[in-house]
Amino acid sequence: MTTALVLYMLALLLLGVFASRKVKNEEDFLVAGRRLPLFLAWGSLIATWFGADTMTGAAEEARNHGLLGVVLDPFASSATLVFTGLFFAAPLWRMKLLTTGDFMRRAYGPSAEVIASCIQVPAYFGWIAAQYIALGQVQELYFGISRENGILLACLVTVIYTLAGGMWSVTLIDTLQISVAFVGLLILGYSVFSHFGDGSAFAGIDRLRNETPPELFSLVPPAMTAATLAWLGTWTVGVLGNVSGQDLHQRIFAAKDAWTARATCILAGVFYFAFGMIPVAMGLMSRITDPAADGEKILQLMAGKYLTTGLSVVFVISFVSIVLSTSCSAVLAPATILGHNLIGRTGLLKGNKLLLERLCVVLVSIGGLFMANRGKSIMALLEFSVSMQLVSLFVPIAMGLYARPRSGWCAISAMVLGMTFFLARLLPEEFFFTVPDVGPQAGLAYGDFLRDHFSGRLGGILKDVVTIPAEFYGLGAALIGYGVCQWLFRGRPNVNAQVLVDAWTINDDRDR
User: Fold this and answer.
1) What is the CATH number of the domain that holds 185?
2) For residue 468, which phi and psi values (nearest 5 degrees)?
3) Based on the structure, what is the number of domains in the chain?
């Protein structure tokens, strides 16, 4: 297995070196020269999103909490790809941008660009960390490498592949890896269900449906309960939070035309959901076949139990492919913003933007490495990363494309207030409240904690306050901040007039 994996990794490295020959300028490094056809754009996008959270995180959450534990991923995450394809992909592509920060500058001004970029770069650290943790788990299980050293090695490999050729390298490697990964996932799913169904995969599916408690198949919590707010918060984070992600925008900008950008998102959403349900099914099945198993290693357990040695090698390579491709893309997205919209503004390495972008890849990787050693679960890291972008960036981006803001302060107030209220609600829970994993009921457990430690009416009020998800506080504050500034500057002309022209002017049939 080790030899096969090493040879595969070397082949990927050679592909990355080949891709580096296509990189002549910053646009090639960041958005592949805006020349990606549908197959490559789709392959890169689905590989970017289909990562550790979808594989190990979803299997673990499905095992522990049923379908309610995987509302964020794959359900809401696949929905956001389709949502973005329908309403955002084409207008964003027409603007010929490099980063989300570029949109903020053109719609609201340079101050909004800097603030948005300062929020977006650290927002990716949790997502990067989730991929490092997953790769560390694989190395610990199959090769006896300690998790800490495995995480460090994952970081080093990611940096090497990302540095090789930027977006061109990531795109080619992603497309190859996601093809390999889906083959491995299909093999695992078919083999496990066949064994579970005594030779018939369909019988295995039927047995899973019959032997799993019905409540674990529920996607909706009991009506009129506090858990409903947490459920709505998760859907809001999943569907709206990812719309503003640089990783998603980068694939939109890299497409060869507006039609390709839109089709890439919609097609990726459909495949994301279809293949994302395989790990979910594995997690549910493990409750029946291996009730005492380690919840963090469900897929690896299934592979070792039901696959032959040869097929186990295919699965391990597939798993590494999925996580590594996501890891490279997750690093490139914030590195792009850091180099292009932040450090690049200072004049550092002026005249050598490619060197600056590569330096930022290293810096962002170190940030992800720091987060990976904080001990959070994969799904918790994912949700925190997406939530930061939801509460600060969704309102300015949506309003910049679909409304007429009267001042750059509309975006600035939305970002600052959204992030402030989100962190004010979330940080006390993160730093002062420590309980075992309670999945989607975490906010409710925190409310019970406050009620028990503050007597009388104050305890009840605090419980009610924290029952509302932090994302709702942040998103509500962002909307209020935007609305107040619109009213204060109501006599001024809109500041995004040229953005509306660029985003909504259709030039040809492929641009519709």
Assistant:
1) 1.20.1730.10
2) -75, 125
3) 1
Look-up of token digits 């002549």: 24
CB 154 within 8 A of CB 131: yes
Bond from prior residue into 440 cis (ω within 30 degrees of 0): no
Q: Is residue 466 part of a domain?
A: no
> Is residue 490 assigned to a domain?
no
pTM across the whole model: 0.84
3-state secondary structure of 192: helix
Q: Render each residue's pLDDT in the chain as its tens digit; 512 residues.
A: 667 767 777 776 676 666 666 666 667 777 777 888 998 888 888 887 777 667 777 888 888 888 988 888 889 889 999 999 999 999 999 999 989 999 999 999 999 999 999 999 988 888 888 888 878 877 777 777 888 888 888 888 888 877 765 666 677 777 877 888 788 888 888 888 998 888 898 999 999 999 999 888 888 887 656 677 778 888 888 888 889 888 899 899 999 999 999 999 999 999 999 988 988 998 898 888 888 766 556 777 777 778 877 777 777 787 777 777 778 778 888 888 998 888 877 776 666 777 787 888 899 998 888 888 766 666 566 677 778 888 899 999 999 999 999 999 999 999 999 999 998 887 776 665 554 444 445 555 555 655 556 666 665 666 667 777 888 899 999 999 999 999 999 989 999 999 999 999 987 656 66
Phi/psi for 69 (5° steps) reads -80, -15
